[in-house]
Amino acid sequence: VTVRYSDDLAGVNEAMLDGFFEGWPSPPSPATHLRLLQGSDLVVLARDGERVVGFATAITDGVLSAYIPLLEVRSDYRGQGVATALIERLLARLDDLYMVDVVCDDDVVPFYERLGFVKGVSMMRRDYANL
Ligand SMILES: CC(C)(COP(=O)(O)OP(=O)(O)OC[C@H]1O[C@@H](n2cnc3c(N)ncnc32)[C@H](O)[C@@H]1OP(=O)(O)O)[C@@H](O)C(=O)NCCC(=O)NCCS
User: Fold this and answer.
1) Cα(21) to centroid(ligand 1), Å
2) Residues pairing with 59 in the sheet
3) Within a 10 A sphere around the Cβ of 8, how many other Cβ atoms?
4) In testing the pocket of ligand 1, which one of 55, 73, 88 has its CB within 8 Å of the most ligand atoms?
5) For ligand 1, what atom is nearest to the CA of residue 70?
6) Which one of 59, 101, 107, 117 has the fewest beta carbons within 10 angstroms of its own beta carbon?
């Protein structure tokens, strides 16, 4: 399997975005997925042919800070370093910033630790009516 990486959405449409938001109680549609990719300051995609098999997004002020709201690799492409490559590509473009933050579940902590992140405390609000 050859996975290619891209830093833009050229040629991407909704039909190429199936299989994401696995396990979410009310998963965003491919159309919503495409809109949030378009609305992000930075996006990195992993692609196998036409199909998008992984993505990561970042929101940034371009001065001091950035946040990585979403990272996912399709379940059939996991365990091959795709997520590592996505985050490394994102971090390379955020290299001049003071802070890069991410909120994740406990099981993903080792993944981010390997990439140089340290554990902190976060506060968050989720409104499921807006999902
Ligand atoms: C977490 C996730 C992005 C990892 O993707 P991936 O392409 O399999 O990651 P990589 O192959 O680059 O690295 C996997 C490594 O991370 C570790 N890891 C940590 N948490 C993990 C998790 N929840 N699932 C899979 N691997 C995880 C594995 O042990 C693995 O280490 P190894 O290579 O030494 O075995 C993927 O499992 C996923 O999309 N999960 C659902 C969405 C999610 O949790 N996103 C993060 C929210 S911030």
Assistant:
1) 14
2) 67
3) 11
4) 73
5) 48
6) 107
Contact 70, 131 (CB under 8 A): no
- pTM score: 0.94
Provide CB contacts within 8 A for 57, sequence distance 6+.
36, 37, 40, 42, 43, 68, 69, 70, 71
Give per-residue pLDDT as tens, 51-75: 999 999 999 999 999 999 999 999 9
Residue owning the nearest CA to atom 13 of ligand 1 = 81
Q: 99-102 and 51-60: which strand pairing?
A: unpaired
Quick check: CB of 73 below 6 Å from ligand 1? yes
Q: Is the dihedral of CA 72, 77, 79, 82 positive or negative?
A: negative
pLDDT in tens, 35-46: 999 999 999 999
